[in-house]
Amino acid sequence: MSDPVDVAHIVPPYLLQHLAQGSEPIAEQARATLVADTQKRRARSRRTAPTVIAGGSAATSGPSREIFDAGNSENLPGKAVRTEGAPATGDPAADEAYDGFGATWKLFDEVYGRNSIDGSGMALLGTVHYGEGYQNAFWNGERMVFGDGDGVIFGRFTASLDVIGHELTHGVTEHAAGLTYRNQSGALNESVSDVFGVLVAQYRAGQTAAEADWLIGADLLLPGVKGVALRNMLHPGTAYDDPRLGKDPQPADMSGYVQTSSDNGGVHYNSGIPNRAFALTATTLGGHAWETAGRVWYDVLTGPDIQPGCDFATFAALTINAAVARFGEGAEAAAVRSAWASVGVGARAADAPPRGEGIDPNAPLLVRRTGGFAGLVRERRTSLAELPRSDRRAWTGLLADRTLAALATASRPTPDAFCYGVVCQAAEVDVEVAEHDLPGHVRALLERTLEG
Ligand SMILES: [Zn+2]
Question: Is the pLDDT at 58 greater than 50, yes or no?
Answer without folding.
Answer: no
